[in-house]
Amino acid sequence: MFDVEVFDDTVTCIKTATKMGDAAIMWAYAYQLGDALFDAGCMNAYDELCAYTGTPRIKRVFVSHGHEDHYGGCPAFLPRARIFAGPITTQILQEPPKLPQFFAFVWGQPVPLTDVVPIPDEIDVGDFSFEVIDLSGHMKEMFGFWEPRQGWLFSADAVPLPSRKRMAMPEENLPKMITRMAQIIALKPKVLFDGHRGPIREPEEHIQTRIDFLTDLQQQIQKLGEEGKTLTQIKDILNFPEPWYLPQTKERFGIEHLIRSFLQDNSE
Ligand SMILES: [Zn+2]
To answer: How far is the CA of 228 from the centre of ligand 1 (A)?
Structure first.
């Protein structure tokens, strides 16, 4: 699936997804500003992305992080565009992991990319100047794109989609995610361009709700850890509902990963 939504004179949302029934399973948002694209959507929308002829043509794709819903669509912009990514993300783009069947269905299996250019510290798009900022936590390497004069932050997956995040991926560092969200609030963004929810105006409350939930959960889990409870016992005590698709993620998502991340508390 593919959809285009104009946010304002500068920003266009490019949405990609896989259809199930009549609706998207989940939208992934890429954002076009002039000839630049922040993230590239998913491989399952490859044909639609190839057919997209928004003006000006996209010549630069900046990839926030190495998850398939953010970089899978990159080949649709080749050879016209250059692909920019950080060093860890570049390795993933060059050798994408083979996805479990569930994720291959939800987003599509990415193909290897050969020419990936190091992401710069600053990105100029017309009159706008973006700082490339560290938003690691959701993944070991993730970048956001911050325009201080506009108060725009393209935040990829830095802010969880659910207000109550109850599961995680093994690579997610939850304490660090909380720190990053607090740093985002301190920037006082006017618009948060989220990787899955789309643009959020005046996002402070949206972000704070997620910080509060995860901070409470962190305290609860760490207290249980200090009492000597094992990970399995903590999982039983929390008794979080498990969504139907959880087994199909082949442990790429799990309640255990979230608990483990809080017990290790390797925030910086
Ligand atoms: Zn992600």
So the answer is: 32
